[in-house]
Amino acid sequence: MKIRAGLIFSFLLTSAFTLATALQPRAFQWSGGSNSDNLTQMLLGDGRQILANHMFVQADVYFHSGYYPSIFDRRDASTNTEPLASEESSPHAAHHPTDQEGAKAAPSNEEEHEKSMRSPGQPLDWIERFGRKFAITQHTHLANGKEREMLPWLRLSTELDPHRVETYTVASYWLRQSLGKAKEAEQFLREGLAANPSSYEILLELGRLYDENYHDSIRAGNVWTVAMRRWMETEAGKPEPNVGALGQIVVRLARLEEKEGHLDRAIDLLKIAISRDATPHPQALREQIEALRVRLKEKK
Amino acid sequence: MNTVFCLAGIVIKELYRRKDFYVLFVVTALITLLMGSVNFFHEEKIVRYIKDICLLLIWVSSLVIAIATTARQIPAERESRTIFPLLAKPVSRGQLIAGKFVGCWLASGIALLVFYLFFAIVVGAKEGHLPVGQYVQAFWMQWSMLAIIISLVLLGSVVFTAPSSNVTISFAAALSILILGGHLHRLAALQPHLLGMLLSALYFLIPHLEWFYAVRERLIFDQGLLAWGDVTLATAYAAAYVGLSLCATWLLFRRKILTM
């Protein structure tokens, strides 16, 4: 009797296994196939984007060592005589100076940021006054390699929403600039590029990595050229294109061309930046074009 | 006093006989260790997210243990009719309330201590140092906050008919205070006169649990020790709320008809 039961059990087990191997590929097609392997997508659906954004903000909270105004503080600030800040549409950890122009603009950004993170005025009563003794009230930024603490949240953010381009560029910036992990930054950017093939922002950051970390100006130039093409394909037709990114791409490309001795091409690129209104300092670029023209004449 | 501690001993025994604590501890340990084993960009020294997640789980678990243990104390005694022989002995209703409170508070403290030991081992192994003072402050502040919650849940168990409604309302109230408690007065300023007054009154009436929760964030972000004077004041604040809640519980319970 026991042997018979064992045989029946073995038969059923073998049948189930065989059926599973036959049905699994078909079941994959029934569910649409493409994303069924992603558990988070199945569980959370479009809610992943909200969570991804929350993770990105969490990275910013970490960047400020836990000192972060709540929505109530912001609301209060907007109605108060002492306004806290302009709307912080994107977290501060993302506002790193990306080039010379960015670096010039950085002090004013920094002032605005300091304003936005100022403590929300005098406490209104003894409860609030006493409560502040326990809360984090010092506005500091992570430094000396501690920026690594933001990375898990940025990684999780991209796991939840692989199409959030800013997360890749921000993580790459901190990885290569503060933590000396250019290889990991490159790998992460390549993951981002695989998920967002038309992203000129990721290409711009990848080019910076080749230029600043690997000192490979040829590859950097190639990547920026593709970035410019992608910008033209995706942004040029928009009513309000992201001209800031175009400015960074063409100015960097122009600098490379100048270094390579292709002065005429450098002039053409700088002209694009001026014609597209892609620079906050057009006069400086005009002067640069004049200087390049003089050098070009001398060369001839 | 002996009677109170005898009653407390029974509550503590109940904690280690029930599965709640073990399940919550294993879940906390598993999630923390799993998250700790993840490698982000080949960076070995990343630790804050582990502290963050582990402390969040500890807070949730300790709230569950404190509220669930406290909410069933008096209703269970009434339901199983063990409250009658208990009160027939020379145990007053006040002593019963005090014994139940001390028992639940000590039981929550023991559970919290185990959680914090686990937290200290995991984070200490990863960080390489152990800021004992900060851990002691964080533990004490959380335990003080649990005292407020336990006393309020005990009050709820006399007011509400079923333990389930007491648990739900207590959780909702604790979470609301943690999220909104510190901002009610600012919200009140934006409301029409009557609603504003009500919100302001609520702001001064509720126990400000968010002070105690802020210590968790200080621990995550290595913000250093709090002044011990402030910790003492916060403890006195918690003790005042506990005293008020227990008095109210006793006033309601001493005239309560205990037959179901």
H/E topology pattern of chain A: HHHHHHHHHHHHHH
Question: What would you call the structural class of chain B?
Answer: mainly alpha
The total count of strands of chain B amounts to 0
β-strand percent of chain A reads under 5%
* Average pLDDT for all residues of chain A: 81
Instruction: Report the end-to-end length of chain A measured between terminal Cα atoms.
Output: 102 Å
Query: Which geometry of chain A do the CA atoms define?
Result: flat
Oligomer: heterodimer
Structural class of chain A: mainly alpha
Strand content of chain B: under 5%
Question: Looking at the structure, what is the overall shape of chain B?
Answer: globular
Tell me which protein chains meet in the greatest interface and how many residues each side has.
Answer: A-B, 30 and 36 residues
Briefly, what is this?
With 300 residues, chain A is mostly helical. Chain A has helices at residues 2-30, 39-44, 47-63, 71-79, 100-116, 126-131, 151-160, 165-177, 182-195, 200-213, 217-234, 243-260, 263-275, 282-299.
General description of the model:
The complex is a heterodimer of chains A (300) and B (260). Helix content of chain A is 67%, strand content 0%. By secondary structure, chain A is an all-alpha fold. Chain A has 2 domains: 43-157, no CATH class; 198-300, Serine Threonine Protein Phosphatase 5, Tetratricopeptide repeat, CATH 1.25.40. In chain A, helix 13 packs antiparallel against helix 14. Chain A starts with a helix and ends with a helix. Mean pLDDT of chain A is 81; it is low at 79-89 and 97-107. The two termini of chain B are 29 Å apart. Helices cover 80% and strands 0% of the residues of chain B. Chain B is mainly α and 260 residues long. Chain B has helices at 2-17, 20-37, 48-71, 73-79, 83-88, 93-127, 132-159, 163-180, 184-190, 193-205, 210-220, 228-253. The radius of gyration of chain B is 20 Å and the shape is globular. Chain B has one domain (2-253).
